[in-house]
Amino acid sequence: MAFSLTRRAALTGAAGLLATSRAFSAPAEDKGISFVPNSFGVLAKPRVLPALSVKNEQNQDVPLSHWFGKPFVLHFWATWCPPCIRELPSVNATAKALGADGPQIVTVAVRGSTIPKVRAFYDAHQIDALPLLVDPMSSVMMETADQDALVESVKQVRPADLKDLTPSVMSLHGVPRSLLLNARGEVVAEAIGNMDWSADAVRHTLSALAG
């Protein structure tokens, strides 16, 4: 399914730092990009990550290595991003359907999404199957970005959008974004845009691309 590119509204507080950010979305009536292997840009070679950590609700560092050992989805979103907030309840429903045996969906809110804002959103929308994690300066999102894979993902689902954006905009600011990591914690594929989530789709796509 296709998605369109929309420029997000200015934020309060740290708005100036994020004035050029973009939200990538499907039309409001659309469920989103199909969560299938062909919606992802596959890295030429699995990417080994440096030691990276995100913050939990207690403002403690949680290393990404906490989830290594099995393939998982790393999903970046933001409280200021309309397609992200439309999408997250379905991400939560998918995580609930996957259950404790997974695969796990690790959701991380990026810069501008404070812990209190994320908690308020979780409570208002009954988000109860996803971890509450933040990436305060978007450093983890930027470190895990692969520009070639992001361009490939857009080319496969909405090639016309490539004329309106650059790889650097996608890698630095594009949300929502979903990454697939293998059991060794290496990034194998990335996609930008809100997606049509389901437990079966996540299992199939991870199995196909991340082993």
Q: Would you give an account of this structure?
A:
This protein is α/β, with parallel strands linked by helices and 211 residues long. Helix content is 30%, strand content 25%. The chain has six helices and twelve strands. It has an eight-stranded mixed sheet. It has a two-stranded antiparallel ribbon with strand order 1-2. It has a two-stranded parallel ribbon with strand order 3-12. The chain starts with a strand and ends with a helix. The N terminus is likely disordered.
Q: Which helices and strands, and how do they pair?
A:
Elements: E1 4-7, E2 22-25, E3 33-34, E4 41-47, E5 53-56, E6 61-63, E7 72-77, H1 82-98, E8 105-110, H2 115-124, E9 133-135, H3 139-144, H4 147-157, H5 167-173, E10 177-181, E11 187-192, E12 195-196, H6 199-210
